[in-house]
Amino acid sequence: MSENRVSKEKLRRECSLEQFEFETTQELEPSCEIIVQQRALETIEFGLNVEQNDYNIFVVTSQGQEKLDFIIEKIKEEAKQEGEPDDWCYLYNFEEQQQPIACNLAAGLGREFKRELKIAINNIEQAISENLFNEEFIKSKSKLENEYQQEIGRLLARLESEAEELGFILEKEKSGFAIIPLLEDGSPMEEEKYHNLSPLEKEMVDRKVKIMQEKINEGLQELTRLAEKYDQKIKELDREIIRQSISSFLQPLLKKYDQYDKLIYYLKNMREDIIDSLEQIKEENEEQIKLFKGSQQESWSTNVKYGVNLLVDNSETGGKPVIFEEEPTYYNLLGKIEYETKGNSLVTHFKKIKAGSLYRANGGYLILEAEEVLANFKSWKLIKQVLKTGKLKMRNLGEEYDKVPLASLEPEEIPVDIKIILIGNHNLYHLLYNYDNNFSQLFKIKAILESEVDWTLENNYKLARYISYQCQENCLRPLNRAAVEKVIEYAGQLTGNQKKLATNFEMISSLLYEADAWANLEDEKLITKEEIDRTLMQQKYRVNQQQERIEEMYHNEKILLQTKGVEVGQINGLSIIDLGDYSFGKPMKITAAVYQGNKGITNIERESKLSGKIHNKGLMILIAYLGEKYAQKSPLSLAASLCFEQLYSGVDGDSASSAELYALLSALSEVPIRQSLAVTGSINQKGMIQPVGGITKKIEGFFRICKLKGLTGEQGVLIPTQNIENLMLANEVVEAVENEQFHVYNISNVEEGLEILTGVEAGSKNEAGEYPEGTINYLVQTKLDVWTN
Fold it and tell me: Cα(417)–Cα(55) distance, rounded to whole angstroms?
């Protein structure tokens, strides 16, 4: 058996940092670069550099803020090497106000244009106000008005002269002119005199009145044309003044942004709208024009039409934008059109359009957590739609379902060039891959950040520098060398593998925070190995109440388990209880009962519906092993039952299949098994022992029970040889092995285990195909042959 014992050196891996010259983490250069796999980094970098819009990236990783921060920082480093994408803004559409115009400008020009346009509008407003009331403009208008009055005067004089020639005088009335005949002495004819005229005289007067009326009508028409002519001249004068005021401030903008057609189109339309707006005000009330002088009530600078909705500003991006959206709701991703209340109505305009992270990340990278995206209504559908169409269309959620559509905006679509990085676990990746046909087409890059990395000197140093970074970043006390070594061992222990380190830096950070708190309570300046040990002990103490209650039941013989002596058909198996935040090993008694019959092997757990599929599979493998081993000459004829004693919560997994087999062979051979030993490991049909999980906790669980009942120096466990590299046993277990109070045996096949458990040779077939007399296989074969015959 001595050759099967695992040496003390293999029971756990200890970390030594003596090759690195430092005493505390203060002497180490801090680094926030966590340990990651080069393959994952290369995959992410490749995905970022593929320009096709269907090469988006899904990063498969476990949860952890440090990993998320690291991914974001790596993408930002890549993004800084590239140029900034365009700014995007919405402008008022003077032809169709419900359809704002989308315009892109080079990065930084959006902010410049918005500022310059505001200054120009203020200057235009002031210039118009000043020019419309300056002395030169007033003189020009007065001159036109004088000319108009002179023209009217000449027209009226002409009409009066023509009336006089016909023997009339004209008298102005509200509705026009009254035509009054003259007597021979030049005095006006009274109405009574007119009625006393002879019919011939009346006819002559009426004929002349008719001629005069026609002349008056022609004069009135000419007067109307004259008024229109001078009104047009006034308007032209106004427009010219306004145009001059506008052009002097808009011309620099038209020249600077001449390559942006939509911007030029907007500026020209704005110029005409300002002119038309001023004319409309004058037409409604000439006095309104005075509001332009010193009044902000009607200020054009506050007019929503004459402004810019700068939707995306990349002036300070410093490369492609990298946006991480923590809450990827529909509105946070796309944006929204806001409304405001006016009276009893909801109104909106183009400046109420608010950009979401899809707009802000346009031309760059958008990072999302897959779980959050899938948890928000319509977010996943929106992302797929944007990636498939390559366009961003602003639309409020649920508008398509409104029975009475709300009058809203229809902003112009914006072309999108975006790379989306989804972060999630393996389950989410497979869920999307298997149940969403679009997923594999849109996310063609899969990068896997493993939960563990190789335990190497290089990674030891990286982890030490990361610990230094955490201490400085969070104002924690520095760690001495021994404390750092202990933290690295803890990272190894989390993996259950002597060759790997865990990349679960959330747990490592928590360890550092709590150790600093204990150091503070003890008024220590450094975090030492003792604080790390105390922290780990306290973390365990906070959650291991159930473990203590179960161990108390072992101690009080409420759960029956022998740790000394020998028994036939009885063995100690090893299992794990997982509570989510804490797991521990729990040994259990496995018994086998055999008798004559053809019923085969009964799995009591399966019959009572406490057995899982994998455990049932392990039992079927056990039966196959018995058949090949002992039923080559005659059918296998036996009846047996296997039971996990005092197990009421169910069992699954095949790690106890070797223990079940040993109990069964002991019962058949009637050779007792040492109860001071416990067994774990699964078997295959050929009797090879296969590795299992949770090996460290299983061994520690049995050790604690042995310690409760008293260590005898004969106790120990049998584990698969392949599991040696998974051992990270507690120091007290290692010390007990070193002092030969406890033993760890490694085995590769059933025969090795039988001999350690029973002290009897297992036996191999000779040339005649028979087992040597007195061996366990011989005793089993003999009993089965007797039962068969």
Answer: 12
